[in-house]
Design brief:
The radius of gyration is 18 Å and the shape is globular. The longest helix has 15 residues. The strands form four sheets. A seven-stranded mixed sheet has the order 1-2-3-13-5-15-4, covered by helices on one side. A three-stranded antiparallel sheet has the order 12-6-14. It has one domain: Clavaminate synthase-like (Double-stranded beta-helix), CATH 3.60.130. It contains nine helices and 15 strands. With 286 residues, the protein is an alpha+beta fold.
Length: 286
């Protein structure tokens, strides 16, 4: 099977045609998708109605071990019965809209900050795959930032100054920024992890900034100085020239590489409009 890649933003985002993902299992087609991830970092597949099980199985075929240690998992039981299928929605287990004051909703609001999936874990997230089920007729776009392009646009002095630095990532920190606090028992299950501030992609050898709202401080640097550096780099990386905004349509399936992108959800009135997506994220192993 030969896939067609149609660039949306040259070198960053492409729309892919000629494939039905739930049927893909041959090594050649899977490798074409991986190569597309190397080339673009964000791939869009239209008209891909997948059941929960089909999405889980495709994710494992494409990239292996799935991320299950999510912040949602410490707050409530997964309504799908599998922590590898993250519920990116604003409804409860009965399918009812979450109330404005519910902890689960408040925790979800941090998805509107620029972040990188599972960066608070070691190993961190590699590929994330998001399937759109219910999309309201208001702006619920997801924005993606090109972290390779952002790194390459830095001046040489800045690139040299950040080489070798490590940032500590904590979802406890990123949730606290918006006023959500985990209990001590919940915090113990989410210890965080340290990762390089600049990552080299093994298959292409391109370098990328590795940032997220989860990044709480730079290791071995005064907290204030480290946070200012993280803020400056994030503002640089999320300039419009590095950002693509995806307008969701039901049955869209988007894959992105967390090692070379950041993303965030757009704000909307989630107490009024229903939105449901399902996410699987693979771990960056081998």
């Amino acid at each position: 099977m030969t896939l067609a890649f149609h660039p949306v933003r040259p070198g960053f985002v492409a729309e892919v045609s000629g494939v039905t993902l739930k049927d893909v299992s041959d090594p050649e087609t899977l490798e074409q998708i991986r190569k597309g991830m190397d080339d673009y970092g964000v791939l869009i597949f239209r008209d891909q109605p997948l059941s929960n099980e089909e999405q889980l199985e495709f994710a494992k075929r494409l990239d292996g071990v799935l991320h299950t240690k999510t912040s949602v998992a410490v707050l409530t039981a997964n309504r799908f019965g599998n922590e590898a299928l993250t519920d990116i929605s604003n409804v409860n287990a009965k399918g009812e809209l979450l109330r404005a004051d519910e902890r689960l909703r408040i925790g979800h609001l941090s998805n509107r900050l620029w972040h990188t999936d599972a960066s608070f874990q070691d190993p961190a997230g590699r590929f994330s795959m998001l399937s759109a089920k219910v999309v309201p007729e208001v702006n619920t776009n997801t924005e993606y930032a090109d972290m390779c392009g952002a790194y390459e646009a830095l001046d040489e002095e800045t690139r040299q100054s950040i080489e070798g630095l490590r940032a500590h990532h904590s979802i406890v920190y990123s949730r606290h920024v918006l006023g959500f606090d985990f209990t001590e028992e919940e915090k113990a299950k989410l210890p965080g992890a340290a990762h390089p501030l600049v990552r080299t992609l093994p298959r292409t050898q391109r370098k990328a900034l590795y940032l997220a709202s989860h990044a709480s401080h730079i290791v071995d640097m005064p907290v204030a100085d480290g946070r200012l550096l993280l803020r400056d780099l994030t503002e640089h990386a999320t300039q419009p020239r590095f950002v693509y905004s995806h307008v969701w349509v039901p049955n869209d399936f988007v894959i992105w590489d967390n090692r070379k992108t950041m993303h965030r959800a757009s704000s909307f009135d989630d107490t009024k409009y229903r939105r449901e997506l399902r996410r699987t994220t693979t771990l960056d192993i081998n």
